Amino acid sequence: MRTKVTISDTLRNLIKAKWKKEQDQNAEEVGRIADSSAEAMKFHDEREGSLSRGEMITQEKYGRGNESIGHGRSGNVRLSRKTSLNNREAECYAIKEYRRGPRETMRTYRNRSTSSFCICSCLLHINVINILNLVQESDGDYCEVMAFCDGGNLASLIVRSEKLDAPEADCFFKQLARGVEYLHSVGVAHRDLKPENLLLTSRGVLKIADFGEAECFRLPWEPEARMSSGHCGTIPYIAPEQYLDREFDSRPVDVWAMGMIYMAMRTGKILWGAALKNQDRNYIRYLCARKFDSGFRPIERLPNVGHKFSRSFL
Questions:
Q1: I need a surface site. Which of 211, 266, 292, 310 has the fewest CB within 10 A?
Q2: What fold is seen in the domain 154-313?
Q3: CA 247, chain centre distance (Å)
Q4: Catalytic, out of 192, 210, 254, 280
Q5: Where in the chain is the domain with CATH 1.10.510.10?
Q6: How do 75-83 and 90-98 pair as beta strands?
Q7: Across all residues in the chain, what is the average pLDDT?
Q8: CATH architecture, range 7-147
């Protein structure tokens, strides 16, 4: 009987490149593909002028535009507009340019860019950003094409509003929880949740974005989750176990960040600079306050939050 192979199965196999024991083999394969692509781009450059094949595909399918709409550690994001045939409406896309680190080899850069794309391109949920394509431009940089969210990000909203009312914060938090629940159900941990990585549409739909630090902690055929290690994420949303010199479960790391995000929405501030009990005074106060019924004041003074929230997320 012939086994049916689905697209999802193929994508999950690509995700295996994330594991360290297969990185060298996959890096060589990706390198050969990239070399072939480079030859193809060179041929098109000679025929079409200064545009590479990747840039031609990007402009043909997703339009043109150099307007910067965001930037971060992993790269910049620009807005691209594709005009329709009737010239009345334009489809908008966000194009993220993966930035290569100053000491990063081309192989490592290629693996990082393609691994992130392999993970997020097979995700399908209303509260997870829709990734459309990955192309390589003439300078060798990779660009990720995604759906454009016209409402900005949660961080900008918090800054403009100073803090969010409980109903609004609860609405966004529920969407975040649903998105994270979905990610964990398919074996993916984000590991860099923060307001800047939560995009919004004009209709108030929250989308989890930027999977540069994401990892697959369990493949469909694996009975148990793989442990994670090392520093990942953004201070002050990093969980305390990430500072310890041992492996950790990456799912609670996402849950911790969710708690920090909710408090940032409700108070307009961060609870502490870093979850280090020997360095940050506010975090030390929080640890001490957990021992008493009165709890940590910045949390307890919020209606309908208190101990229940603290014990569940932080």
A1: 292
A2: Transferase(Phosphotransferase); domain 1 (1.10.510)
A3: 21
A4: 192
A5: 154-313
A6: antiparallel
A7: 80
A8: 2-Layer Sandwich (3.30)
